[in-house]
Amino acid sequence: MDQQTSKKTTVAQKGRKGAQRRGRSGSQSAKSRGVRSLPDEVSRQIVKDFIMSEKVPAGDLLPSESQLCEMYRVSRSTVRSAIKSLYEYGLISVRNGVGAVVLPRAHEIPHGLDRLASIDTFAVETGHRAGTTDLTWEQVPADAEMSRKLRIPVGDMVLVVKRLKLVDDEPAAWVIDHLPRELVDPEDLRRKFRGSILDVLLEDPVQAIDYADSEVRPWICDEELGKTLGRSEGDAVLYLDTTVVTVKGRPVIWGRIWLDPNHFRFAFRRRRFN
């Protein structure tokens, strides 16, 4: 089987498997189960095949809609949705009568505050490489703050996962995730972990992730955090405090994330309410 045929099969099979999962899950929403839509899968594959690989350099055209439909064995409406996502992420410009032109990659990762997704996901979707280093796993008894954030008794065991996230091989974020031991299997998490705890749980229908309550605020680096992120003591970074909640209303992750603003740009849409 040639490479192009293999890619076609992969994307099409993902779509069929997603449909099968939807059929088995009854009324539970795709969002709460963490199942990616077919347009999302196609947009990720386009990024991987043409943008990250630089097979199509900045300034050149992506394959046409009909070519992408044939390549990934999907409908034209699916391809158009995938192209729209790439446009919204600033990876391409779309010119009527011309096509989709690949844009030079921005240094930072744009992050929509209203979307529940991992650093790894945003990095890949915007044409960057994500990596993980300085990874540690430990179990500790919940202190007062963990108890409040995770809604568990003080002293209950908590799984704490720490790591440094890299973007294009540069330090970008220091992440500390806290998970109630009673809700997760540490060994299963470690087997499935590829850089993001959130990604593992989003793909787990048992956890059924629903939303995250998050707050972003400035944070002044101390010496230790500055060294970790490659910054200086006294530099300002972004601090994200986020609690991920299941459809049953149980907090399953309390995340503390320190982000180098040179690598992240947050955006949101302000709506008018009468």
Describe the structure.
- This protein is of the alpha+beta class.
- The protein folds into two domains: 100 residues, Winged helix-like DNA-binding domain superfamily/Winged helix DNA-binding domain (Arc Repressor Mutant, subunit A, Orthogonal Bundle); 158 residues, Chorismate lyase (3-Layer(aba) Sandwich), CATH 3.40.1410.
- It contains ten helices and ten strands.
- The strands form three sheets. The chain has a six-stranded antiparallel β-sheet. The protein has a two-stranded antiparallel ribbon with strand order 1-2.
- A hairpin with a 2-residue loop joins β5 and β6.
- α3 crosses α5.
- The longest helix has 22 residues.
- The N terminus is likely disordered.
Keywords:
two-stranded antiparallel ribbon; 30% strand; alpha+beta; Arc Repressor Mutant, subunit A; 274 residues; disordered N terminus; Chorismate lyase
Short description:
The chain is built from ten helices and ten strands. The chain has 274 residues and is of the alpha+beta class.
